[in-house]
Amino acid sequence: MNPLTQSKNTTILPVLIALALGCFAFSPTALEVTPAGNAGYPNQNTAPQGLVKQSFPVGNDPFFLVFDGANIWVTNAGEDTVTKLRASDGVVLGTFPVGDSPEGIAYDGANIWVTNYSDDTVTKLRASDGVVLGVYPVGSGPMGVLFDGTSIWVANYLDNTLVKLDPSDGSPLGTVTVGVQPYALSFDGTKVWVTNWTDGTVTAVRADNLAVVGTVPVDPAPAGIAFGRQSIWVASYGSGSLSKISARNVVLQGSTRILGAAWGVCFDGSSIWVVSNGRNTVYKISF
Question: Please, what is the average pLDDT of the chain?
Fold first, then answer.
């Protein structure tokens, strides 16, 4: 079980409405994707941008997901499995056993990597058929996992470390201490970035030699993190805010309030998307 969240049996039926946000210097505009019929929010029957609303069943207590180029993989923390769905139509192609309390998930171009929070391991599965290729020990309470194009990185939530693995055999290539309770990971091309939940910081680590480049204070309880537009974007659960960090200079450039408890964040090539966990909402920030 993810120590930071509880499962929510919620059906998401998104619609888009305009949202006025406080702005950074870059003056974003935002769209809100929220469940239909939420109090105080209009239920638009025709969503803009050709939005199609669908839902597909997976396993018990699903948490994180990844795309392998054709399929979506979801970790099911409540039943120690991952589910593979065909992205084109949501058909379940298989459900595969992994370790105890699977949380983070990543794709390395051929294989799926899953962190098993309660047994301190990562599982490597062949993406083509879900066969387990290996189970490798890491640190205590592994949470986030990332493939940087060369190596696998795992954030160990309970021992405040980041471990680098050889994807060919899962052997450790190095470990570095970061902040308190590291959670999620992102990569900017040269540096691995990790959110540190308890001390409200983000740490940047050089991917080649594991040297800590810097640690940046952000708003309380930073969770999701993403790289885009030469910046690192951090969603802070504790303050419901989105922070922007210069990826080059490793300095905070500003933050803005996101209604609700900000959680996951990603960049789609042009816009930033932020999950508002407390409002069952996703915000799209355009530039």
Answer: 83
In the chain, CATH 2.40.10.480 covers: 1-55+216-287
Kindly give, in sequence order, each residue whose CB lies less than 8 Å from that of residue 203, ignoring residues fewer than 6 positions away: 162, 178, 179, 182, 193, 194, 196, 212, 214, 215, 216
**How far apart (Å, rounded) are the C-alpha atoms in residues 92 and 16?**
28
Please state the pTM of the whole predicted model: 0.83
Q: Rounded to whole angstroms, how far apart are CA atoms 46 and 36?
A: 11
- How far is Cα 62 from Cα 11, in angstroms, rounded to an integer? 13
What b/e string do you get for 109-124 counting C-beta neighbours within 10 Å, with b at 16 or more? Answer: eebbbbbbbbbbbbbb
Which residues pair with residue 257 across a beta bridge?
241
Domain 56-177 indexed as CATH 3.40.50.150: no
pLDDT above 70 coverage of the chain, percent: 80
**What pLDDT was estimated at residue 281?**
72
**Coil, strand or helix: which one is 231?**
strand
CA angle 52, 231, 282 (to 5 degrees): 25
- To the question of domain 1-55+216-287 being in CATH 2.40.10.480, the answer is yes
